[in-house]
């Protein structure tokens, strides 16, 4: 599906650019995509009023297309990593 986009130029302070770069890297997307996601999340949060945190999370989950199966797989993987880390730490602390 074709995506309509408009090229624009904005001046950002150094801290904002660094934050944008960190978000893009964390999400493994381009800086443009990270900026789009941030703008959409802010717009949803503003429209939601008192439910800003929940609305932003909902928007992020929709953006990531997080299905129940993907969520369960993520939980399983994280738990396995935590168990492995706990085991490694326990082994390391033994004399």
Task: State the gist of this model.
With 95 residues, this protein is an all-alpha fold. The protein is built from four helices and no strands. The chain folds into two domains: 58 residues; 30 residues.
Average per-residue pLDDT, rounded, comes to: 84
Order of helices and strands: HHHH
Structural class: mainly alpha
N-end to C-end Cα span: 60 Å
Please report the total strand number as a whole number: 0
Low-confidence stretches: none
Number of helices: 4
Number of structural domains: 2
Global morphology = extended
State which percent range the strand residues make up: under 5%
User: Mind describing the biggest β-sheet?
Assistant: none
Gyration radius over CA: 19 Å
Helical content, roughly? over 70%
General description of the model:
The chain has 95 residues and is mostly helical. It folds into two domains: 7-64; 66-95. Helix content is 75%, strand content 0%. The protein contains four helices and no strands. It has helices at 14-27, 31-48, 52-64, 68-93. Helix 2 packs antiparallel against helix 3. The chain is extended. The termini are far apart.
SSE order and pairing:
Layout: H1 14-27, H2 31-48, H3 52-64, H4 68-93
What distinguishing features does this structure have?
95 residues, mainly alpha, 75% helix
């Amino acid at each position: 599906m074709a995506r309509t986009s408009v090229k624009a130029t904005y001046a950002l302070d150094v801290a904002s650019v660094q934050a944008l770069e960190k978000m893009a890297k964390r999400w493994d997307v381009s800086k443009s995509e990270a900026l789009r996601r941030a703008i959409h999340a802010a717009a949803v949060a503003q429209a939601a009023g008192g439910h800003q945190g929940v609305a932003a999370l909902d928007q992020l989950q929709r953006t990531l297309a997080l299905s129940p199966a993907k969520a369960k797989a993520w939980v399983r993987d994280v738990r396995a990593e935590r168990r492995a880390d706990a085991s490694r730490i326990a082994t390391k602390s033994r004399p």
